[in-house]
Amino acid sequence: MIGRFGEYGGQFVPETLMAALAELDDAFNAARMDDAFQNQFVDLSAHFTGRPTPLYFASRLTEFCGGAKIYLKREDLAHTGAHKINNALGQGLLAKRMGKTRIVAETGAGQHGVASAAVCAMLGLECIVYMGTEDMRRQAPNVYRMKLLGAEVRGVDAGSATLKDAINEAIRDWVTNVQTTHYLLGSALGPHPYPTMVREFQAVIGHEARAQMLATEKRLPDLLIACVGGGSNSIGLFHAFRDDDVAMIGVEAGGLGIASGKHAARFAEARPGVLHGTYTYVLQDDDGQVRATHSVSAGLDYPAVGPEHAHLFDTERVGYTYATDDEALNAFHQLARLEGILPALESAHAVAEAIKRAREMPRDEIVLVNLSGRGDKDLQTVMSASGEQ
Ligand SMILES: Cc1ncc(COP(=O)(O)O)c(C=O)c1O
């Protein structure tokens, strides 16, 4: 069935959006086959985004763990500081191709909003970014960055004032202005074709990492690790390795611990449901109402997960675990001190798992971690968590 990953995915949207989704699906499929579009994407990925991003051997972190070699795929070095730019660039070009003049986007950590704003400025598109007011507080530098790049940031007070609520408002705007507007969704979630389309624009991460690993170590890694919010940086890394004998782990936000109920570990309490137009795993209460989530990292603080991950969970091709806020903060400090790299708090969840795993693996094995973004946006959060303000 179209847009399904096993039983997950689909299009659970109001009828007013069906035509827009069909138009988007057609445009995406045509663009995929069009050399001119692909060449433009590759050219701008090199000259605007700065691809390929490096593969970095974290020798001091490896030594510290005393086990498997740890490599980092440096998406933090992509333009605007995270992997989000890969998808924003792809969809921005697609919106232009469809003749749309206005972009709406949602953002949690602000990285997708900044990436969308930068791409819209570069392509001459109007850009409106919806953001929960709680996230605006946590990620204030990114709010200012978006404004500098010419975007209008609209605060959302509803619900928990985080990513889920921002997506609701962006969808509402899109329904109203669908003729002129493209909804630049920031992760591999939502109704078809978004999960597939976002994965394809992010697949560059895995393709590069695979080739770089073969060039450096003359072999594939044993284990891939990436954090999972909506699921785009992880699926972008995993996709190129799907048919290889390589283990994969997705790391969700364990927040204050599963027992506390304050987390965003969707697979720790595996229960399927529908949210934002797709059938997937959703954190919900006994009545099926979407539950409030918590994470120190705004980009992982979301109650559902991209539907392809739901399928990968059921089929056990990918293992899913979580890191708590404290574990992520510790990993943030460890990477900073040992490697001179401040990771995004989202990425620090993946680093936390790498530290645990590498210790238990032999020295001739290799762990590849996707460092999805840089931590400058999180300095305020880290300072207050460390009691420094
Ligand atoms: C740096 C960074 N990493 C990871 C994520 C999580 O999103 P995804 O699971 O789509 O990669 C975000 C989301 O804002 C982010 O900013």
Give a description of the structure:
With 389 residues, the chain is an alpha/beta fold. It has helices at residues 15-33, 35-49, 59-65, 84-97, 111-123, 133-138, 140-148, 163-176, 194-202, 204-217, 232-238, 307-314, 325-339, 345-360, 379-385; strands at 4-5, 8-9, 55-57, 69-74, 102-107, 126-132, 152-156, 181-183, 223-227, 247-255, 272-275, 278-281, 319-324, 366-371. The strands form four sheets. It has a six-stranded mixed sheet with strand order 3-4-14-9-10-13, sandwiched between helices. The protein has a four-stranded parallel sheet with strand order 7-6-5-8, sandwiched between helices. The structure holds pyridoxal-5'-phosphate (PLP). Pyridoxal-5'-phosphate binds at residues 82, 84, 108-109, 111-112, 187, 227-234, 299-300, 344, 346-347, 372-373.
Question: What distinguishing features does this structure have?
Answer:
389 residues, alpha/beta, 6-stranded mixed β-sheet, 4-stranded parallel β-sheet, 44% helix, binds pyridoxal-5'-phosphate
Summarize the structure.
By secondary structure, the protein is α/β, with parallel strands linked by helices.
Q: In angstroms, what separates the terminal alpha carbons?
A: 53 Å
Mean pLDDT: 97
Counted beta strands:
14
Strand proportion, as a percent range, falls in 15-25%
User: Which ligands, by name, code or SMILES, are bound?
Assistant: pyridoxal-5'-phosphate
